[in-house]
Specification:
The chain has 196 residues and is α/β, with parallel strands linked by helices. It has one domain: Protein-Tyrosine Phosphatase, Chain A (Alpha-Beta Complex). Helix content is 34%, strand content 18%. The protein contains eight helices and eight strands, in the order βαβαβαααβαββαβαβ. The chain has a six-stranded mixed beta sheet with strand order 3-2-4-1-5-6, with helices on both faces. Strands 7-8 form a two-stranded antiparallel ribbon. Strand 2, helix 2 and strand 3 form a beta-alpha-beta unit. It is globular and about 45 Å long. The N and C termini lie far apart (40 Å). The relative contact order is 0.18.
Protein backbone atom coordinates (compact mmCIF):
# COMPACT_ATOMS: atom_id res chain seq x y z
CA UNK A 1 0.00 0.00 0.00
CA UNK A 2 1.11 3.51 -0.79
CA UNK A 3 -0.81 6.40 0.75
CA UNK A 4 -3.54 3.98 1.80
CA UNK A 5 -4.06 2.64 -1.73
CA UNK A 6 -3.22 -0.86 -2.97
CA UNK A 7 -0.41 -1.00 -5.53
CA UNK A 8 -0.58 -2.50 -9.01
CA UNK A 9 2.61 -2.85 -11.03
CA UNK A 10 2.78 -3.14 -14.81
CA UNK A 11 5.59 -4.38 -17.05
CA UNK A 12 6.29 -5.05 -20.70
CA UNK A 13 8.27 -8.20 -21.41
CA UNK A 14 9.90 -6.51 -24.42
CA UNK A 15 12.84 -8.52 -25.75
CA UNK A 16 14.27 -9.44 -22.34
CA UNK A 17 15.76 -12.81 -21.60
CA UNK A 18 13.62 -14.73 -19.14
CA UNK A 19 16.36 -14.31 -16.53
CA UNK A 20 16.35 -10.50 -16.88
CA UNK A 21 12.55 -10.45 -16.77
CA UNK A 22 12.52 -12.55 -13.58
CA UNK A 23 15.17 -10.25 -12.09
CA UNK A 24 12.96 -7.19 -12.72
CA UNK A 25 10.02 -8.93 -11.05
CA UNK A 26 12.13 -10.02 -8.07
CA UNK A 27 13.46 -6.49 -7.62
CA UNK A 28 9.91 -5.33 -6.94
CA UNK A 29 8.82 -8.46 -5.02
CA UNK A 30 6.17 -9.42 -7.58
CA UNK A 31 4.18 -12.49 -6.56
CA UNK A 32 1.81 -12.78 -9.54
CA UNK A 33 1.85 -11.83 -13.22
CA UNK A 34 -1.47 -11.06 -14.90
CA UNK A 35 -1.01 -11.44 -18.64
CA UNK A 36 -3.20 -8.94 -20.52
CA UNK A 37 -1.98 -9.74 -24.03
CA UNK A 38 -4.89 -10.52 -26.34
CA UNK A 39 -2.75 -13.14 -28.05
CA UNK A 40 -0.34 -14.59 -25.45
CA UNK A 41 2.44 -15.69 -27.76
CA UNK A 42 5.78 -14.22 -28.67
CA UNK A 43 8.63 -14.67 -31.13
CA UNK A 44 10.64 -15.15 -27.93
CA UNK A 45 9.35 -18.60 -26.91
CA UNK A 46 9.83 -18.04 -23.16
CA UNK A 47 7.12 -15.36 -23.31
CA UNK A 48 4.48 -17.57 -24.95
CA UNK A 49 1.71 -18.49 -22.54
CA UNK A 50 2.52 -22.13 -21.73
CA UNK A 51 6.24 -21.49 -21.44
CA UNK A 52 6.10 -18.34 -19.31
CA UNK A 53 3.53 -19.83 -16.95
CA UNK A 54 5.85 -22.75 -16.23
CA UNK A 55 8.99 -20.64 -15.95
CA UNK A 56 7.35 -18.15 -13.60
CA UNK A 57 6.12 -21.02 -11.43
CA UNK A 58 9.70 -22.26 -11.28
CA UNK A 59 10.80 -19.00 -9.66
CA UNK A 60 7.80 -18.82 -7.31
CA UNK A 61 5.67 -16.33 -9.25
CA UNK A 62 2.03 -17.08 -10.08
CA UNK A 63 0.52 -16.54 -13.53
CA UNK A 64 -3.02 -15.59 -14.56
CA UNK A 65 -4.29 -14.89 -18.05
CA UNK A 66 -6.79 -12.04 -18.49
CA UNK A 67 -6.11 -11.24 -22.13
CA UNK A 68 -9.66 -12.04 -23.18
CA UNK A 69 -11.06 -9.58 -20.64
CA UNK A 70 -8.36 -6.89 -20.57
CA UNK A 71 -6.44 -7.34 -23.83
CA UNK A 72 -5.91 -4.36 -26.09
CA UNK A 73 -7.00 -6.09 -29.29
CA UNK A 74 -9.95 -8.19 -30.37
CA UNK A 75 -12.55 -5.58 -29.42
CA UNK A 76 -14.99 -5.63 -32.34
CA UNK A 77 -18.68 -4.95 -32.65
CA UNK A 78 -21.12 -7.43 -34.13
CA UNK A 79 -20.91 -5.54 -37.45
CA UNK A 80 -17.14 -6.10 -37.57
CA UNK A 81 -16.13 -2.52 -36.80
CA UNK A 82 -13.72 -1.67 -33.99
CA UNK A 83 -15.07 -0.58 -30.63
CA UNK A 84 -14.27 2.89 -29.30
CA UNK A 85 -12.39 3.26 -26.01
CA UNK A 86 -15.54 4.17 -24.08
CA UNK A 87 -17.30 1.08 -25.41
CA UNK A 88 -14.38 -1.11 -24.34
CA UNK A 89 -14.08 0.22 -20.80
CA UNK A 90 -17.82 -0.17 -20.22
CA UNK A 91 -18.07 -3.63 -21.77
CA UNK A 92 -19.19 -6.40 -19.42
CA UNK A 93 -16.11 -8.59 -20.00
CA UNK A 94 -13.72 -5.65 -19.45
CA UNK A 95 -15.43 -4.73 -16.18
CA UNK A 96 -15.37 -8.39 -15.11
CA UNK A 97 -11.63 -8.45 -15.85
CA UNK A 98 -11.04 -5.34 -13.74
CA UNK A 99 -12.97 -6.92 -10.87
CA UNK A 100 -10.89 -10.12 -11.11
CA UNK A 101 -7.70 -8.07 -11.20
CA UNK A 102 -8.72 -6.14 -8.09
CA UNK A 103 -9.46 -9.42 -6.28
CA UNK A 104 -6.02 -10.78 -7.24
CA UNK A 105 -4.37 -7.62 -5.92
CA UNK A 106 -5.74 -8.42 -2.46
CA UNK A 107 -3.84 -11.73 -2.46
CA UNK A 108 -0.33 -10.40 -3.03
CA UNK A 109 1.93 -8.18 -5.10
CA UNK A 110 0.46 -8.21 -8.61
CA UNK A 111 1.90 -7.05 -11.92
CA UNK A 112 0.04 -6.65 -15.21
CA UNK A 113 2.14 -7.80 -18.16
CA UNK A 114 1.95 -6.98 -21.83
CA UNK A 115 4.58 -6.95 -24.58
CA UNK A 116 5.54 -3.30 -25.05
CA UNK A 117 8.69 -2.15 -23.23
CA UNK A 118 7.43 1.41 -22.78
CA UNK A 119 4.31 1.75 -20.68
CA UNK A 120 3.10 4.74 -22.72
CA UNK A 121 3.04 2.61 -25.86
CA UNK A 122 0.69 0.06 -24.32
CA UNK A 123 -3.00 -0.28 -23.49
CA UNK A 124 -2.04 -1.10 -19.88
CA UNK A 125 -1.34 2.63 -19.47
CA UNK A 126 -3.91 4.01 -21.85
CA UNK A 127 -7.04 2.21 -20.65
CA UNK A 128 -6.48 -0.35 -17.89
CA UNK A 129 -4.60 1.90 -15.46
CA UNK A 130 -6.90 4.95 -15.77
CA UNK A 131 -9.86 2.78 -14.77
CA UNK A 132 -8.10 1.80 -11.54
CA UNK A 133 -6.05 4.88 -10.69
CA UNK A 134 -8.68 6.49 -8.44
CA UNK A 135 -8.42 3.59 -5.99
CA UNK A 136 -5.02 2.09 -6.81
CA UNK A 137 -1.42 3.31 -7.04
CA UNK A 138 -0.18 2.27 -10.49
CA UNK A 139 3.59 1.81 -10.92
CA UNK A 140 5.09 0.93 -14.29
CA UNK A 141 8.34 -1.07 -14.18
CA UNK A 142 10.75 0.14 -16.86
CA UNK A 143 13.38 -1.92 -18.68
CA UNK A 144 16.09 -0.54 -16.38
CA UNK A 145 14.12 -1.57 -13.30
CA UNK A 146 12.99 1.94 -12.38
CA UNK A 147 9.39 2.86 -11.64
CA UNK A 148 7.13 5.41 -13.30
CA UNK A 149 3.80 6.48 -11.82
CA UNK A 150 0.64 6.45 -13.90
CA UNK A 151 0.45 10.23 -13.57
CA UNK A 152 4.00 10.61 -14.96
CA UNK A 153 3.08 8.31 -17.86
CA UNK A 154 -0.01 10.38 -18.62
CA UNK A 155 1.99 13.61 -18.63
CA UNK A 156 4.56 11.97 -20.92
CA UNK A 157 1.74 10.98 -23.29
CA UNK A 158 0.32 14.49 -23.58
CA UNK A 159 3.47 16.65 -23.59
CA UNK A 160 4.64 15.92 -27.15
CA UNK A 161 1.30 17.13 -28.49
CA UNK A 162 1.49 20.49 -26.73
CA UNK A 163 3.29 23.57 -27.93
CA UNK A 164 5.53 25.63 -25.63
CA UNK A 165 2.68 27.93 -24.56
CA UNK A 166 0.21 25.16 -23.70
CA UNK A 167 -0.89 24.42 -20.18
CA UNK A 168 -2.13 21.12 -18.78
CA UNK A 169 -5.07 20.74 -16.45
CA UNK A 170 -7.04 17.83 -15.17
CA UNK A 171 -10.62 17.58 -16.27
CA UNK A 172 -13.26 18.37 -13.62
CA UNK A 173 -14.07 14.67 -13.26
CA UNK A 174 -10.43 14.02 -12.36
CA UNK A 175 -10.43 16.70 -9.65
CA UNK A 176 -13.38 15.11 -7.89
CA UNK A 177 -12.27 11.49 -7.82
CA UNK A 178 -14.55 8.99 -6.19
CA UNK A 179 -13.42 5.69 -4.61
CA UNK A 180 -14.38 3.49 -7.59
CA UNK A 181 -15.61 5.54 -10.50
CA UNK A 182 -18.53 4.26 -12.51
CA UNK A 183 -17.47 2.82 -15.88
CA UNK A 184 -18.39 5.94 -17.79
CA UNK A 185 -15.83 7.85 -15.71
CA UNK A 186 -13.01 5.32 -16.09
CA UNK A 187 -11.05 7.87 -18.02
CA UNK A 188 -10.92 9.99 -14.86
CA UNK A 189 -7.48 11.34 -15.67
CA UNK A 190 -8.09 12.69 -19.14
CA UNK A 191 -5.69 15.52 -19.75
CA UNK A 192 -6.88 18.59 -21.57
CA UNK A 193 -4.48 20.78 -23.52
CA UNK A 194 -5.41 24.43 -23.38
CA UNK A 195 -3.89 26.15 -26.35
CA UNK A 196 -3.52 29.95 -26.24
Amino acid sequence: MIAGKPVLFTIGHSNHSFERFAELLARHAIERIVDVRSFPRSRLPWFSRGEIEGRLGGVGIGYEFLGRELGGRDWVKSDGSSMELEEIITAERFLAGLARLQTMMQDGSTCVMCAEAEAIDCHRTRFIAPCLSATTTILHISSNGGLKTQRAAEVQLVLPSLNQNASISLSPSARSRQPMPPPEQCTDLLLEARMP
